[in-house]
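I am going through a labmate's work and have reached the protein record below. What it holds is a sequence and that sequence's fold in C-alpha cell form. Please read both lines and tell me whether the C-alpha cells look consistent with the sequence. Do not assume that whoever made the record got everything right. Thanks in advance; the entry in question is below.
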Amino acid sequence: MTSDDQLDPSETPTETAPDDPADGSDGPADRGVDHQSSEDESADRDVEVPMRVYKAITVFTTLFAIVTVVGGFVVLDSATNRATASLSEIQPLAALAGIGLILAGAAAYAFSTRFRAEGMGKSKDDTDEQSDNG
C-alpha cells in the first residue's frame, strides 16, 4: 500500500447499518431505527402555527411574492429598455433594484413555505413510505 492509498484520519468512512440484517428482521422498522434526527430536522425547518395564522401567512406572502417578482421584472425591463438598450444606455441601479425585487419575492415565498398548520401532514422528507420508482 502506497502513501497515496492511505486514508486521512479525517476522511475515515462512517459506519452504516447493513442492508441485509443478520438477525433475520425484515427491515429498518424491526431494527429499531431512531427517527429522532429526522424529526429534529423537521422541527428546525417547519414552524407549526394555528390554521388562521397559516392562511394569513400563505395569502399575504404569496401576494407579496407575486407583486415583487412582477414589479422586479417591470423595473428590470424599463432599466434595459425592453432588453434592447446598448450597454452604455442601461441604468445599472434600476437593473440591480429589479433583480433585488425578484430575489426578495423569491425569498419571501421560500420563507413562507416553512409554515404549516396544526394537524397538517409532515413534509414528504419525513415520511416512512418507500419510493416505488426504482
Summary: The longest helix spans residues 51-79. The mean pLDDT is 77.
